[in-house]
Amino acid sequence: MTLDRYHPYALALLRIVAGLLFMEHGTQKLLSFPAGEHGGVALMSLFGAAGLIELVGGALLAVGLFTRVVAFICSGEMAVAYWMAHAPQNPFPVNNGGDAAILYCFVFLLLVFAGAGAFSVDGAGKPSRV
């Protein structure tokens, strides 16, 4: 028995968890929940646009709808966030607080190429490859 047969389920778990955590960043920016330093930003600002991408993109990724396109947009947002907000502070991600942005960027980039995995709206009605 190999673990390859569980690939679609592991990918789905990664997609769902990453989407929910990403969505939380959007709720913090736009809805001030949970309360934090980035709460209550104006929607018509760069931070507001980021919050909207995080909220809507995270929700779409969690359910697996338009996964590849949404993951591409979210990956790009995280690349921009890293280079605009984190990298200018310090060249080392552990010191500039950008390690999460880098990780999100590459997790979402993986989803662009790998797809949604199991338990997704994108894959509803398709025969399982397991």
TrEMBL record:
Keywords: Cell membrane, Membrane, Transmembrane, Transmembrane helix. InterPro entries: DoxX, DoxX-like_oxidoreductase. Belongs to the DoxX family. The keyword Signal does not apply. GO terms for cellular component: plasma membrane. It comes from the Bacteria. This is DoxX family protein. It comes from Jiella endophytica. It holds the Pfam family DoxX. It is a multi-pass membrane protein. It is found in: Cell membrane. Coiled coil: none annotated. The chain crosses the membrane at residues 6-23, 35-53, 59-80, 101-121. Its main location: membrane.
